[in-house]
C-alpha cells in the first residue's frame, strides 16, 4: 500500500514484521502463478515419469498442506504488524468510513491511498441509470441469434461434444490469457511500478478522479476521470472514453493523446487488468466489444476513433482447427462485424503494419471502388496519396450531394446502399471520397502512441 498520491507525498512505511511477512507472501504468490501456468507441462512430465501414483501423491499433499499452514501463519504475522502501525490504523478507519458513510470528503481522503482495489467502495452501479431490459436495445449488447437446423440434432451434438469440451477448456484456461496478456499476474507484477507512477501523474497533474464502476455482469471496473468542463480548454466539454488494448492499462495507455488535445477523458481497465476485478471474457454473442483498440458500447452513436486494431482473430492466430473453433465460439473479436452494427461516425487510423479496411457503404465499395481504394492505400506517402486521389478527379461537392440526398430519402441508419445503381466512374469517386474521410494513415508501428495533432473527431454529414 502506498500512501500519498498528493503533493504532500508521504509513503507508507511498513514495520519490520509486516515488511518481511509481506515479502514472503509476495514470493509465494509469484511462485504460485508460475506453477499455475506451467501446470500442464508439469503434469505431463510427472505422468511420463510415473510420479502420479498414490504412493507419491499422498506424501506430496502432506508437504503442500504444511506449506499452506506456514503461509497462513505468515499472513497472521503480517496482520499483527499492520494493526500495530498507527498509519495503517488511520487508513483502515478512512476505508471503513468510505464504505459506511461515503461522503465526498471521506472519498477524497481515500483517494490519497493506493491499495488493493477490491476493497475500494463502489462509486457507480449499472442499475442506477439503466436496467437490464434497457441494455437489450443497444445493438452491440444484443446476443447473436442462434440458428437451428436439422443438422443440429442430438447425434450431431454428441459428435461435436468432445471438440466443444476441448474448446471450452482452452478458452477458459490459457486461451483467454494469451488473447489478453494484460490479465496475466506476472505481467502486471512487472509493470506495477509504471502503473503506480502513471496513476499518480493523472491524479497530480490532471486532477484525475479514480472510481469503481459495478457492471451488469458483476465486474468491478477501475476507472480514471479527468473533468475539464470548467477549464479554459476549447474541447473540455467533450468526453473521450479511452479503451485500451489487450495488453494496455489506462495508467500508461492512450489517455495522454486526448488529454494533451484538451478533451475531458474517461479511462478504464478491462476486467482482470490491474484494479478491475474478475477475469476477461468475451461471451459467444460478443456482448462486450473488447479488443485491441476496441470501441465502447455506446447507445447514443457518438463519434468513434478506432486505432491499433486487429481484424478477425482466426485469420491472425491460425488457419484452421481447434484454435479457430475456440476463437470463433468464445474469443471472437471481429471489429468489422461490430462496426457494421455501429451507427455513429467512424474514423479508422491505419498504422503502417496494421492494415484494416472496414466499410459501412458496401455498394460503393464494390469491385470498382475496392480497386481504387486499394491503390490509394498502397501509396507510400502523403504525396502519392494525393496523386492517386487527384488522378480520379474526385468531385467532392458531387459526392456530398449524393450522400446528402440518400440520407434525406432513406435516413441515416447503416449500412447504406448508396451507389448501387451508379456507373463505375461514380463508384470510384465515391469510394475514394469516403475512404479519405474515414481512413487516416499514421506512419508508425503498432504500439506507438497517437500524437495529439493526429487526434481528430470522425467526419459525418
UniProtKB/TrEMBL annotation:
Single annotated GO MF: phospholipase activity
Asked if the keyword Hydrolase belongs to this entry, the reply reads: yes
Principal cellular location given in the protein's record: membrane
Provide one Gene Ontology cellular component: endomembrane system
Kindly state which reaction or reactions the protein catalyses: Hydrolyzes glycerol monoesters of long-chain fatty acids
> What are the residue boundaries of the Phosphatidylserine Lipase ABHD16 N-terminal domain, all occurrences included?
8-116
Protein's name in the database:
acylglycerol lipase
Organism per entry:
Chelonoidis abingdonii (Abingdon island giant tortoise)
Amino acid at each position: 500500500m502506498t500512501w500519498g498520491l498528493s503533493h504532500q507525498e508521504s509513503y507508507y512505511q511498513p514495520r519490520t514484521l509486516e515488511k518481511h511477512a509481506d515479502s514472503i507472501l509476495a514470493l509465494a504468490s509469484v511462485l504460485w502463478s508460475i506453477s499455475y501456468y506451467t501446470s500442464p507441462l508439469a503434469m505431463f512430465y510427472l505422468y511420463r515419469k510415473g510420479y502420479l501414483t498414490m504412493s507419491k501423491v499422498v506424501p506430496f499433499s502432506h508437504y503442500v498442506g504444511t506449506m499452506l499452514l506456514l503461509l497462513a501463519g505468515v499472513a497472521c504475522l503480517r496482520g499483527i504488524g499492520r494493526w500495530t502501525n498507527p498509519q495503517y490504523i488511520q487508513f483502515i478507519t478512512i476505508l471503513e468510513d468510505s464504505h459506511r458513510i461515503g461522503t465526498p470528503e471521506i472519498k477524497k481522503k481515500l483517494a490519497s491511498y493506493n491499495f488493493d482495489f477490491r476493497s475500494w467502495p463502489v462509486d457507480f452501479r449499472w442499475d442506477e441509470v439503466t436496467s437490464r431490459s434497457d441494455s437489450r436495445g443497444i445493438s452491440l449488447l444484443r446476443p447473436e441469434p442462434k440458428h437451428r437446423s436439422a443438422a443440429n440434432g442430438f447425434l450431431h451434438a454428441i459428435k461435436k461434444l468432445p471438440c466443444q469440451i476441448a474448446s471450452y477448456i482452452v478458452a477458459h484456461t490459457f486461451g483467454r490469457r494469451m488473447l489478453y496478456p494484460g490479465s496475466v499476474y506476472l505481467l502486471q507484477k512487472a509493470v506495477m511500478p509504471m502503473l503506480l507512477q502513471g496513476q499518480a501523474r493523472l491524479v497530480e497533474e490532471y486532477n484525475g478522479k479514480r472510481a469503481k464502476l459495478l457492471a451488469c455482469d458483476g465486474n468491478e471496473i477501475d476507472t480514471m476521470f479527468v473533468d475539464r468542463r470548467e477549464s479554459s480548454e476549447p474541447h473540455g466539454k467533450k468526453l473521450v472514453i479511452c479503451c485500451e488494448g489487450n495488453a494496455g492499462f489506462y495508467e500508461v495507455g492512450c489517455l495522454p493523446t486526448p488529454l494533451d488535445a484538451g478533451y475531458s477523458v474517461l479511462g478504464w481497465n478491462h476486467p482482470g487488468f490491474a484494479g478491475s476485478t474478475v477475469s476477461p471474457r468475451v461471451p459467444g454473442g460478443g456482448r462486450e466489444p473488447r479488443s485491441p483498440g476496441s470501441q465502447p458500447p455506446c447507445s447514443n452513436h457518438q463519434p468513434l476513433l478506432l486505432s491499433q486494431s486487429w481484424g478477425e482473430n482466426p485469420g491472425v492466430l491460425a488457419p484452421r482447427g481447434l484454435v479457430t473453433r475456440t476463437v470463433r465460439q468464445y474469443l471472437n473479436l471481429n471489429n468489422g462485424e461490430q462496426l457494421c452494427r455501429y451507427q455513429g461516425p467512424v474514423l479508422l487510423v491505419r498504422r503502417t503494419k496494421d492494415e484494416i479496411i472496414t466499410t459501412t457503404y458496401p455498394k460503393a465499395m464494390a469491385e470498382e471502388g475496392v480497386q481504387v481504394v486499394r491503390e490509394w492505400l498502397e501509396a507510400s506517402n502523403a504525396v502519392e496519396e494525393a496523386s492517386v486521389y487527384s488522378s480520379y478527379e474526385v468531385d467532392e461537392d458531387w459526392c456530398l450531394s449524393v450522400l446528402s440526398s440518400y440520407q434525406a430519402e432513406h435516413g441515416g441508419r447503416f449500412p447504406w446502399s448508396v451507389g448501387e445503381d451508379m456507373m463505375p466512374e461514380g463508384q470510384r469517386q465515391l469510394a475514394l471520397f469516403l475512404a479519405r474521410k474515414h481512413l487516416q494513415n499514421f506512419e508508425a508501428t503498432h504500439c506507438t502512441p497517437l500524437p495529439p495533432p493526429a487526434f481528430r473527431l470522425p467526419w459525418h454529414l
